[in-house]
């Protein structure tokens, strides 16, 4: 579990959303996947069903009313057990779920999340009660509006999990000049089927997904490690500095060196979002 707080709005920054639940207690956040923006606040929660590269930014926060969010990684083993013990009570929409989805926050889900966070005040109770409370949260997701997506996440042979396996491979090999066809083989699909399913879930093609991963890592190298653009491009898999610059400018709107300099200056002059990791 992570508790996230920010007392100011933040600039859009690249981040990988692993399979997770995000519940906002106060403020608002925007997550952009491909060309689609997802805005969530206390009235709605966000579920990421696979690893996804997004641009995230807090858009509503202040000193008096900071942005507050609880983020919980989703345990696939526990989800699988719950899905078997609690079959769907109603027919659920077939088809591929989107990799990111928003649903209305229910009182029952919010109550369980509050009790989980409250265990931080009584750490002596956490070992006994936290697993039960997390299981309740997963049950609320499974039996709520996000149930169809959660069930596909829990099924090892679902199309969603086949794509998830390919995503793990792409994330491991994004620097390499490996053909994307290899990812289709890992997913157990034909090339055309793989491309169609991959885009339905991630809102981008496999090549676009790999490019996003490369750009995120290159940006990190330039901003955090003060690496020059040519070296960062080479490390993430580009043989041509000019091609790297073109792809970077297409995604971020300006050349890599100028963008990295702006991000460093912004970070120095502005508080950043705090994401302390807290064990429940």
Structure description:
The structure is a single chain. The chain has 280 residues and is an alpha+beta fold. It is built from 11 helices and 9 strands. The protein has helices at residues 76-85, 107-118, 123-142, 147-154, 159-173, 181-187, 191-202, 206-224, 229-235, 241-252, 256-269; strands at residues 2-6, 13-17, 20-26, 28-33, 36-40, 44-48, 52-60, 67-73, 100-104. The termini are close together. Residues 271-280 have low confidence and may be disordered.
Unreliable runs:
271-280
Distance between the termini: 6 Å
What is the string of SSEs from the N terminus onward? EEEEEEEEHEHHHHHHHHHH
Instruction: Give the rounded overall mean pLDDT.
Output: 89
Percent of residues in beta strands: 15-25%
Could you describe the largest sheet, including whether it forms a barrel? 5 strands, antiparallel
- Count of helical segments? 11
Summing up helix and strand content along with how strands pair, one would put the structural category as alpha+beta
DSSP, total strands: 9
Q: Please state how the strands of the largest beta sheet are arranged side by side.
A: 1-8-3-6-9
Rg is 20 Å
- Tell me the overall shape: globular
Helix content: 40-55%
């Amino acid at each position: 579990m992570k508790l996230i707080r920010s007392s100011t709005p933040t600039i859009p920054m690249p981040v990988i959303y692993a399979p997770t639940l995000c519940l906002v207690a106060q403020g608002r956040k925007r997550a952009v996947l491909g060309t689609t923006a997802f805005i969530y606040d206390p009235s709605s929660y966000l579920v990421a069903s696979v690893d996804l590269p997004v641009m995230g930014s807090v858009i509503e926060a202040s000193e008096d009313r900071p942005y507050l969010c609880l983020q919980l990684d989703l345990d696939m083993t526990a989800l699988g057990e719950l899905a078997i013990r609690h079959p769907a009570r109603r027919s659920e929409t077939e088809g591929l779920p989107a990799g990111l989805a928003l649903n209305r926050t229910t009182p029952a889900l919010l109550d369980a999340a509050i009790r989980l966070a409250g265990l931080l005040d009584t750490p002596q109770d956490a070992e006994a009660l936290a697993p039960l409370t997390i299981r309740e949260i997963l049950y609320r997701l499974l039996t709520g509006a996000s149930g169809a997506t959660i069930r596909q996440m829990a099924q090892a042979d679902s199309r969603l999990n086949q794509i998830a396996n390919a995503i793990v491979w792409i994330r491991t090999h994004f620097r390499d000049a490996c053909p994307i066809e290899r990812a289709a083989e890992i997913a157990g699909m034909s090339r055309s089927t793989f491309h169609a399913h991959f885009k339905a879930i991630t809102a981008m093609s496999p090549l676009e997904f790999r490019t996003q991963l490369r750009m995120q890592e290159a940006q990190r190298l330039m901003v955090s490690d003060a690496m020059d653009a040519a070296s960062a491009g080479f490390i993430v898999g580009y043989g041509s500095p000019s091609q790297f610059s073109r792809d970077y400018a297409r995604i971020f709107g300006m050349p890599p060196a100028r963008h990295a300099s702006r991000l460093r200056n912004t970070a120095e002059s502005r508080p950043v979002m705090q994401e302390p990791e807290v064990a429940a």
